[in-house]
Amino acid sequence: xxxxxxxxxxxxxxxxxxxxxxxxxxxxxxxxxxxxxxxxxxxxxxxxxxxxxxxxxxxxxxxxxxxxxxxxxxxxxxxxxxxxxxxxxxxxxxxxxxxxxxxxxxxxxxxxxxxxxxxxxxxxxxxxxxxxxxxxxxxxxxxxxxxxxxxxxxxxxxxxxxxxxxxxxxxxxxxxxxxxxxxxxxxxxxxxxxxxxxxxxxxxxxxxxxxxxxxxxxxxxxxxxxxxxxxxxxxxxxxxxxxxxxxxxxxxxxxxxxxxxxxxxxxxxxxxxxxxxxxxxxxxxxxxxxxxxxxxxxxxxxxxxxxxxxxxxxxxxxxxxxxxxxxxxxxxxxxxxxxxxxxxxxxxxxxxxxxxxxxxxxxxxxxxxxxxxxxxxxxxxxxxxxxxxxxxxxxxxxxxxxxxx
Length: 405
Hints:
Pfam families: IPPT, zf-met. Keywords: ATP-binding, Nucleotide-binding, Transferase. Residues 360-384 form the C2H2-type domain. InterPro entries: Dimethylallyltransferase, P-loop_NTPase, Znf_C2H2_sf, Znf_C2H2_type. The protein starts with 6 loop residues before the first strand and ends in a 7-residue tail after the last helix. The strands form 5 sheets. The chain has a 6-stranded parallel β-sheet with strand order 5-4-9-3-10-12, sandwiched between helices. Helix content is 51%, strand content 15%. The chain has 17 helices and 14 strands. By secondary structure, the chain is an alpha/beta fold. A hairpin with a 3-residue loop joins strand 6 and strand 7. The chain has helices at 34-45, 70-75, 102-115, 129-137, 139-148, 163-177, 179-187, 192-199, 217-226, 228-235, 238-241, 244-260, 265-275, 280-313, 328-342, 372-379, 382-398; strands at residues 7-9, 15-17, 21-28, 47-51, 78-79, 87-90, 94-97, 100-101, 121-125, 150-158, 207-208, 318-322, 359-362, 367-370. The radius of gyration is 25 Å and the shape is globular.
């Protein structure tokens, strides 16, 4: 049965009159301008913005998570930002974490997508690959898209060669906005059993650690454990009392020095510490922490690029947006052209290809192994190495295949 333009074929094959709308998913590396782009698209398309970021779902970390400001959320309708409280009182005294999973987020997103009525355009934005992958891969997602007439458009923002300078600018901006005060407040409420999850490295068990996942918090926690002087700075409230404008200015100089010459890190930290009116050990530790936030943010951004490539392996088409030198005249027409195409769709065109586990064969051990990770573990195993050595000895002895070297 062929559908007329302006109608769509539902997943059960029945025809219903419904204009297809775009569902814009804005992904990208950290500090690539995702929020800025989402706001501009919302203004141009009568859009409503949905949180697709694991951190921006939580209250109390608006600076660490680079969440949209209250003014931005007032100007454009936003959904699910600051949805969860990181701390709740138990028995009126003890603070405990509110535990959430990606399934909680998914259920909320599905409800929001049903609520956003034409002509409004839903725009999902965030830097959490796992959330986008979960949404796109669920069997119920295609049924939902067909039932409400939404055609996904995937965008991936990347600052490319300007990544490090963009990250440096972002960290400086976070300090100026009050990062040290926000972190101090969080550290005063952290429970020891939750802290171990970030000190021992991030735990991936399907349960969101909320604020503990924020790059920036873990670096401060580790510094407080490693340095008595820095811990004292946090506990006596001195960290939160540092002038954000001065510290951000000094941090800007620190980042500029290492961007120009990476060999000057130690000297840069020392110059940064000399400018602060706090004990030298604590000042040195603070400089090290801020550089750690910068380094880890850059590393995470590079990992996000790999995630985009993984999404494409599932048969998803992604429009890559270069935000290294933000030029609206180049960026917006490209996206709006894709949006215009959706209005011509007669039905939802969406397929998510599940990737079957890769089957690899070990010639030495004569076994088939499912999955690249398991295969790599196998070739590093003692049993594999022992068999490999035996094969080498056998080849050398009979002269059939002298082993090189």
